[in-house]
Amino acid sequence: MSSKSIWVLMALILVSINLRPAITTVAGAVGQLEKGLGMDAQLIPLLTALPALAFGVSAPCGPWLARRLGAGRAVAVAMLMLAAALTARVLAPVLMLPGTLLAGVAIMAASVLLPQIIKANQGTGWWTGLCSMSFGLGAALGAGLIQPLQHLWGGSLTWALAVWAIPALLAAVLFLGHGGVRTAPVDSTVFSPASNSVPTEVMTTGAPARSSAYRGLRQQATAWAVMAFFGLQAMLYFAVTSWLAVFLVSKGMTAGDAAGLLAWFSVAGLPASLMAPVLASRPAVLKVMAPGVGVLIAAALFCVLTVGGELQFLMVGVLGVVQSAAFGLGIALVVVRSAGPQAAGRLSAMSQGLGFALASLGPLGAALLHDLTGSWDATFWGLAGISLLLALAGYFAVTGKIVSVGDSGVPARETQSADVGR
User: Fold this and answer.
1) What pLDDT, in 10s, does the model give residues 283-321?
2) How many CB atoms lie within 10 A of CB 126?
3) Alpha carbon distance 349, 191 (integer Å)
4) The CATH homologous superfamily of the domain defined by 207-422
């Protein structure tokens, strides 16, 4: 590997690490926001939903920047925007909501371009794997370091949150110096997982053709099932990361220990996020895995709700494993249930655009159930119910017809068996 490739890979890893702390740092300190930052307690549920909502509406921002600046410079701009958002949102309570929304837009703009840069630099599967692992690592660091950083800064929650602007600035500098690779313009249908990246061929079709293709896609039940699976697993992820620490504190755990378990939730799932797509490539495994992961999440949520003491560490780890497996499977379904690159690109845009918008309801719904009942029991039972819906979506996603979109923008005649088990 050349020295330039090493620098580009380092830049990609650093960017990937930056794409979760904006969410998990707030989740790790959500119980302190009212006192530490003077934020209105009634706005906190909305705050937890904003990142997912921003992901759902801002997918075209990255390709738009790349067409004008090149993908590398566009990522650098997104990192600068992220640093500014992380700093601005803690300067005053009134800036917390718009700052978090801007951070979500910056995260999506950067993550949508990572596959293109990996391909432009002829990156191997290890590049994608390292970037995927870095997402989870960033999530764990954001949650796990919030309390130590607050202690380091003399109890200041403001500085403990704002300090994450520094690695974002470093990522921008590294990309401007070594990762500013100009690549061909990208279509807004390129993969945009604010998470793992699955490289596909970039399709450059006109607006009328894209509109016709999307109409054809929306007529296919499997496409809706894949979208539902991705959106429901993301809804569960954002709900859990937003309120798990608060729930653990309500059970008598200290804020520091609760933040540590939230970090453990992310760390425990790192291997699963890599292995799930590999296992999903085997049709017989996929037929069981897709509905099974939803059932396992429901069981893990029940265990987290009911167990206590040292077993909580184990159960939170299990929840992290199955939740990360669902995420990896959500990405894999886009690939294995599509007839080709064009169909995969369209399906990715649909499943992640609509899916993240759906996911934004998770934190809000969890908080609403808690407020209405005064207990976390209803919230966890509600999330378990969503997990069973996830299992149902997984079943239809792997048993329906292959998603296919022809060059003319209408569903193409299928040339392969729709039964994933054959």
Assistant:
1) 889 999 999 999 999 999 999 999 877 789 999 999 999
2) 9
3) 7
4) MFS general substrate transporter like domains (1.20.1250.20)
Distance, in Å, from the CA atom of 331 to the CA atom of 416, rounded to the nearest integer, reads 21
Task: Give the CA distances from residue 375 to residues 10, 101, 316, in Å, rounded to whole numbers and listed in that order.
Answer: 45, 29, 19
pTM: 0.73
> Is the Cβ–Cβ distance between 238 and 244 less than 8 Å?
no
Q: Rg for the chain (alpha carbons), in Å?
A: 20
- Structure tokens of 118? 């990996």
In the chain, list all ranges with CATH 1.20.1250.20: 1-185, 207-422
- 8-state DSSP, 178: I
Give every CB contact of residue 104 below 8 A, 6+ residues apart in sequence: 22, 50, 51, 52, 53, 54, 55, 58
**31: which DSSP letter?**
G
Q: What sign does the dihedral 226-17-21-263 (CA atoms) show?
A: positive
* pLDDT grade for 1, boundaries at 50, 70 and 90: low
Contacts of 385 (CB under 8 A, 6+ apart): 298
What secondary structure does DSSP assign to 202-269, as a single string? PP---HHHHHHHHHHHTT-HHHHHHHHHHHHHHHHHHHHHHHHHHHHHHTT--HHHHHHHHHHHHHHT
Instruction: Match domain 1-185 to its CATH number in 1.20.1300.10, 3.20.20.70, 3.40.350.10, 1.20.1250.20.
Output: 1.20.1250.20
